[in-house]
Design goal:
The chain is mainly beta and about 240 residues long. The chain has one helix spanning about 205-235; strands spanning about 10-15, 20-25, 35, 45, 55, 65-70, 75-80, 80-85, 95-100, 105-115, 125-130, 140-145, 150-155, 160-170, 180-185, 190-195, 195-200.
Length: about 240
């Protein structure tokens, strides 16, 4: 930002799926730039000449889009943003599981993600997707924020990752609910997908079995009654 444009200037950070957070602002009256809580640990600094923002010792929680702006004659103008991301880590995906469910039944789907680092203190947003047969793209079926309470540190002593387990209850399944279900976690500039579960829904034919058994019972009863009548008539004759 140019020096003569830094009056009433500010920086904002927008994390993935979150509202923008105010980082720092200056009123242009000679006072020091004022950082908001969460950005006062000394790692964030601004050049007072050109109002460039610098970050030292970058952490995964710093990931997001940073954009500056200024207020001039009660008009807010934003500059172009800078996206800060981290290189994805290689993950050992476990094979997806398969389930066979009858129509009308309920099922609890479980999805695990094991690559969130322990220093990621940001709230986690969880998304569930279903990729049905014949569909070109998965569709979002459920979202929920602030689910970091379902994560714990990995049991491996030398591991800095967290293991997160999420569950989704599906009631009264129909044939249209068949497909592969995935969960995804968005936190600290990353989107991590868990292992998938393939759900095969089959028609529940229990009602047909019940009807057939009832019909057979009625037929047997009718035959026994008819035999009784015939034997009684034969004895009279």
């Amino acid at each position: 930002m140019d020096k003569n444009e830094k009056s009433h200037s500010f920086w904002y950070k927008q994390s993935l799926g979150k509202v923008p957070d105010h980082v720092v602002r200056t009123a242009g009256d000679g006072r020091q730039p004022r950082f908001t809580s969460g950005f006062t640990d000394g790692r964030f600094t601004v050049d007072e000449e050109v109002f460039d923002l610098s970050i030292k010792g970058i952490k995964e929680k710093d990931a997001g889009t940073y954009f500056c702006g200024k207020v001039k004659t009660n008009v807010v103008e934003f500059g172009s943003g800078t996206l800060l991301l981290f290189e994805a880590k290689k993950m050992n995906h476990r094979p997806r599981t398969e389930m066979v469910i009858k129509t009308g039944e309920s099922v609890t789907l479980q999805c695990s993600v094991q690559s969130l680092t322990s220093d990621c203190s940001e709230e986690h947003s969880v998304y569930w997707f279903r990729h049905g047969s014949g569909e070109s793209h998965p569709g979002i079926i459920y979202t929920r924020g602030n689910r970091s309470d379902q994560c714990k540190n990995s049991s491996e002593t030398d591991s800095s990752t967290q293991s997160c387990v999420y569950k989704l209850l599906k009631r009264n399944l129909s044939l249209s609910d068949a497909g592969t279900y995935y969960c995804a976690v968005a936190a600290c500039g990353q989107i991590l997908f868990g292992n998938g579960t393939e759900v095969n829904v089959q028609e529940n034919n229990n009602w047909l079995v019940t009807i057939l058994l009832s019909s057979n019972l009625v037929c047997v009863t009718a035959i026994m009654v008819l035999l009784g009548v015939l034997l009684k008539t034969k004895r009279k004759g």
